[in-house]
Amino acid sequence: MEKSRLVIVHRRTELAELLDRHATLGQAEFFLRSRGRTMAAVQERHELLGAALATVRAAVPPDWRRAEVEREDLNRFMFTPEDIIAVVGQDGLVANVAKYLTGQPVIGIDPEPGMNPGVLVRHTAADAVRLLGNPAPGGGKRVPLACRELSMVRARLDDGQELSGLNEIFIGHPSHQSARYRLTTPQGLSERQSSSGLIVSTGTGATGWCASIALERGGRTLPAPTDPALAWFVREAWPSPATGTSLTEGALEAGEPLRLTVASDQLVVFGDGMEQDRLTASWGQEISVELGIRPLRLA
User: Fold this and answer.
1) Are 109 and 97 in contact (CB under 8 A)?
2) E-strand stretches of the chain
3) d(Cα 148, Cα 272) in Å, to the nearest integer?
4) Which H, E and C letters describe 99-128, residue by residue?
5) How far, in Å, are 11, 38, 45, 68 from residue 41 at the CA level?
6) Gap between the Cα atoms of 174 and 178, Å rounded
7) How far apart (Å, rounded) are the C-alpha atoms in residues 265 and 131?
8) Terminus-to-terminus CA distance in the chain, angstroms?
9) Are 199 and 210 in contact (CB under 8 A)?
């Protein structure tokens, strides 16, 4: 049996990106001052992340393996069944990594307590030391992490390609022009539409993008993060002789797919704002969106 591996996921700090662009601290500081900002705040956030990463690295049990991956490289990283994932950063970073997992437990670690909502990064770096040690009373094997199972959403093309999202999946035109398609609900209702795209959200995503749309629509009840249910909304459906606006929102239970048949040259499908990691569906292809088969296990 393979040894456990801790995979630490993080993003490059703003300071690191400024140095890539401006080469020196002095030039980076001048750039920030010209925009009414100070280097001190950027430096502090850089140091807080560095301190949190150092604490998590030191907490790795000696008999475990360790790996690290930055957000930009997630789509090229190979996760294994033995992994435990430590996400050090903002809530959105947990969503970014969730789509690449197949049941591995995730520990969300907030390097700046009080600065993030803490919905998904619920632990401090000090908590990670306790969670990763996690010895059984009287010694012996470590106690498995206690995890909540958060529902996910899955999109699949009729050629077998698929992707998942923790917050939501978006379907729309790649250049943000009107997306044209035929929408079919699980109840068999169907309508040709032209819109700004479609959002299908989980209960986790119901506190973000989806919440603002639901509020504008009069406050539809949205699922909780662990509910096996999804909410969907069509954005800015356009009425015309050929397109309708009667099917613009609804709920999906387990086993109830929402189907779109593409009537544009192409539509893109991506999850949790990661547009660079997307599926592309061409004219006539069918896109099916439903509850994901694998929830995110969040410690």
Assistant:
1) no
2) 5-10, 65-70, 83-88, 105-109, 148-150, 153-157, 162-165, 168-172, 179-184, 190-195, 197-201, 229-235, 249-253, 258-262, 266-271, 279-282, 286-291, 296-298
3) 20
4) CCCCCCEEEEECCCCCCCCCCCCCECHHHH
5) 17, 6, 6, 26
6) 10
7) 49
8) 23
9) yes
Q: In what order do the strands lie in the sheet with 249-253?
A: 249-253, 229-235, 197-201, 168-172, 266-271, 279-282
Amino acid at position 240, single letter: S
Amino acid at 181: Y
From residue 15, how far is each of 23, 31, 50 by CA, in Å? Answer: 11, 12, 12
d(CA 200, CA 241): 26
Q: Which pTM does this prediction carry?
A: 0.85
Q: Is 55 in a helix, a strand, or coil?
A: helix
DSSP structure class, residue 167: S
The pLDDT profile of the chain, 299 residues, written as one tens digit per residue, is 568 899 999 999 888 888 888 888 888 887 878 888 888 888 888 999 999 999 999 988 888 999 999 999 998 999 999 999 999 999 999 999 999 999 999 999 999 988 878 889 999 999 988 888 754 444 445 556 889 999 999 999 999 999 999 999 999 999 888 999 999 999 999 999 999 999 999 999 887 778 888 888 877 789 999 999 999 999 999 999 999 999 999 999 999 999 999 999 999 999 998 888 899 999 999 999 999 999 999 99
Phi, psi angle pair for 279, to nearest 5°? -105, 150
203 residue type, one letter: G
